[in-house]
Amino acid sequence: VKTEGIRSIYSHQIAVRAGVSPAQVRRDLMAVGYSGSPNRGYEASELLHSIEDFLYDPVGQNVALVGIGNLGRAILAFFSSRRRRLNVVAAFDTDPAKVNQVVHGCRSYPMHELPRVIHEQDIRVAIITVPADAAQGVAEQLVEAGVRGLLNFAPVTLRCAAQVYVEHMDLSVSLEKVAFFARRRLAEGRKA
Amino acid sequence: VKTEGIRSIYSHQIAVRAGVSPAQVRRDLMAVGYSGSPNRGYEASELLHSIEDFLYDPVGQNVALVGIGNLGRAILAFFSSRRRRLNVVAAFDTDPAKVNQVVHGCRSYPMHELPRVIHEQDIRVAIITVPADAAQGVAEQLVEAGVRGLLNFAPVTLRCAAQVYVEHMDLSVSLEKVAFFARRRLAEGRKA
DNA sequence: GGATGTGAATAGGTTCACAGCG
DNA sequence: CGCTGTGAACCTATTCACATCC
User: Fold this and answer.
1) According to the model, what pLDDT value does residue A80 have?
2) Out of A71, A159, A182, whose CB is closest to B125?
3) Does strand C come within 7 Å of the CB of B24?
4) How far is B110 from chain A (nearest CA, A)?
5) What is the arithmetic mean of pLDDT over A155-162?
6) pTM here?
7) What is the average per-residue pLDDT within A135-147?
8) Which candidate among A106, A150, B26, B189 keeps its CA 20 to 30 Å from the CA of B172?
């Protein structure tokens, strides 16, 4: 989202930028509850404000990360650069060599401090970047400590209580998906 | 997928492992074209074989990665460890200090060699881990060179020809999604 | 005229439910 | 009996189309 001197914007303009249909945009904006005017479209800053009200917690959320490997560190770096409503405020690892330091602006703790830190910082969202065989156990510890949303990078499907929202980001699966559909498009292209 | 001494398996067993419904499993297996027998279920190794035939290119695919930052390196490390059908065989970056070396088992090249390497290695899938403002340009270079599938980690929506399959992995968006639904579940939990 | 908001139609994907078979 | 394969019902999400307003 950018403020490039634009005051008002029409649904079809938003549509091409997001790569979706104008009807889609209008219906989604119905959901957030902001109405534009037919002659001027949507007033940009007010629209943004409405969307933010709809999406975000009034009080910024704290996030934890478990697993300070290559991927974990990359993600910490990614989020440390751009301050946003969601802040990764604590990282955990089993390796004693990796804990009690500051990694990309984020304090790291040993696993046994996880429940205490989660409670103290009121963390309800966590990122899992541990090896596959440790993921389910970590997830259970996090949920036990009060976390209600998980972003899982480990290549296993986590089994959690229904009240926990789990988003699975599997690099292998995604890449295979791309390879699969790319191959398919290539085949279609040939016969068309 | 694991070989833990299991010969045959029923759809509902697959279902709980994958966290989906048994009907879903059966319908998906229809698509790959493998039929189980009612009394024994699916014969594990044959099923795997059929799925692989359906999913994968007979000849292993080569993959390129553009953007050797923190995230790029983490992904290289991730794929170097586990040899699979998809191999990341080339990495690219604009930074002269990062090119012409071997990063996590993957050779790195300067950007201007991209078209040549893509052609020589017959690469049709690429991973984009460059900053947001460079992503669209990189995508165009890749497509121009013959790539037909993109896995994009940059926080921008890429605009590409229809014959190119683009998968967008946006860490920020995913994390916000988790935070949003976690909050929602929490609210539902309270009133229920 | 051109854009919005929205009911109605449509498409896509999931679940139901049952015939058939071992 | 219990499981598979699959037509049919169902539900969600997208798109169409049009009344409405500036």
Assistant:
1) 87
2) A182
3) yes
4) 22
5) 92
6) 0.92
7) 97
8) B189
